[in-house]
Amino acid sequence: MPIINRIAEFHDEITEWRRDFHAHPELLYAVERTAGIVADKLRSFGCDEVVTGIGQTGVVGIINGKGEGTRTIGLRADMDALPMTERTGKPYASTSAGRMHACGHDGHTAMLLGAAKYLAETRNFSGRVALIFQPAEEGGAGGRAMLDDGLVEKFDIAEFFGMHNWPGMPAGHFGIRAGGIMAATDRFYIDIIGRGGHAARPQTTIDPVLVAANMIVGMQAIVSRNVDPLANAVLSVTMVEAGEADNVISQSAKITGTVRTLDGAVQDQIEDRLNAFVPALAASFGAEAKLRYARGYPVTVNAPAQTGFAAEVAREVAGPERVDADAPPSMGGEDFSFMLNQRPGAYIFIGNGESSELHTETYDFNDAVIPAGVSYWVRLVERALPVE
């Protein structure tokens, strides 16, 4: 079944919501304006219950269907922006210096609001739908905070479904896969302690910069020579800090980076190898190194049954030729993973067309995909919770 006509009718209205959110980006948990607008609109649509303050600033709207069912499914959108300066030149560009919707969360929020408006109007389903608007996806673990506040228990949610726009995928197409679709996002912090001195007399020092250089090269062998080549793993060093003057060998150096994996066993393997390798490499130079390994968002794992179902719904909306049910995974992270650890569900990509990449200063959500995204949400609810 193609785009729903009624949804196409309020495409322009949803676009206006999206562009307003885009012009007023908010960070992490400080999404009071966005959350307030979301709650007000949910009430105006006639949601049966609107609960605010879950996970600090999260919002949940409940819509009861007209059937006799009691099962509740959760649909989730994220609300927060990124600490970046926008350079799109759009008339609705960010009005807040150093803040930007560079990941499309403005579009995600607007599309779920569009689905809420339609579902509250038609109620052509049985049971309940929980519309979840989450803060702090961008590094703040807002999904986990909402779960810690009793999201599942308060609303008796049986399944979770999420959606994210995807630049480079044709606009309005969908991509999904069973199993790991987004990576675990771990970080590592290494402190190297050597012995400082004059740069002209390196023989009297233990140079932590030299240790760091060898350590950076050596760490790449963990992925290339320890991890199965058929597994997915990324180890990236992203920051190196040392020294204050060009004629002084520093006493210490710091290395910071990230590890991305799609399998828990590979994640354990890399952490174990780093714990063995880092101090041993430093000791071989006469230095000392301390590693702190911090686990971040877990792997986003799509349950097979819910993934197959979501792909079927996407095919109804977009057509079979526009749905890739074996889409490649991403090594980016997503805290929807916490929700999928609590209940089965599926996370799907919707094509954003040939836009700038996510997390870039020229990125913008493609408003043309709104009808497809909203129609997907609506059909998913009506198919998952059919009226008997």
Keywords:
16 strands, alpha/beta, 388 residues, Aminopeptidase, 2 domains
Structure description:
The chain is an alpha/beta fold and 388 residues long. The chain has two domains: 5-182 and 299-384, Zn peptidases (Aminopeptidase), CATH 3.40.630.10; 184-294, Alpha-Beta Plaits (2-Layer Sandwich), CATH 3.30.70.360. 36% of the residues lie in helices and 25% in strands. It is built from eleven helices and 16 strands. The protein has helices spanning 5-9, 11-23, 32-45, 105-122, 142-148, 151-155, 208-225, 264-284, 304-318, 336-342, 370-384; strands at 49-54, 58-64, 72-78, 128-134, 157-166, 174-175, 179-182, 184-193, 197-198, 233-242, 248-249, 252-261, 288-294, 300-302, 323-324, 345-351. Strands 1-2-4-3-5-16-6-15 form an eight-stranded mixed β-sheet, with helices on both faces. The chain has a four-stranded antiparallel β-sheet with strand order 10-12-8-13, covered by helices on one side. A hairpin with a 3-residue loop joins β1 and β2 (58-64). The longest helix has 21 residues, at 264-284. It is elongated and about 80 Å long. It starts with a helix and ends with a helix. The mean pLDDT is 97.
CATH superfamily of the largest domain: Zn peptidases
Rg: 24 Å
Biggest β-sheet, characterized? 8 strands, mixed
Q: How would you name the oligomeric state of the polypeptide chains in this document?
A: single chain
Count of helical stretches: 11
Order of helices and strands: HHHEEEHEHHEEEEEHEEEHEEHEHEH
CATH-level-2 architecture of the largest domain: 3-Layer(aba) Sandwich
Distance between the termini: 20 Å
Summed over residues and divided by their number, the pLDDT gives a mean of 97
CATH topology of the largest domain: Aminopeptidase
Count of domain modules: 2
Structural class: alpha/beta
Could you tell me the number of beta strands? 16
Which strand order do you get reading across the main beta sheet? 1-2-4-3-5-16-6-15
CATH class of the largest domain: Alpha Beta
Classify the beta-strand content into a percent band: 15-25%
Shape: elongated
Helical percentage: 25-40%
Outline the low-pLDDT stretches.
none
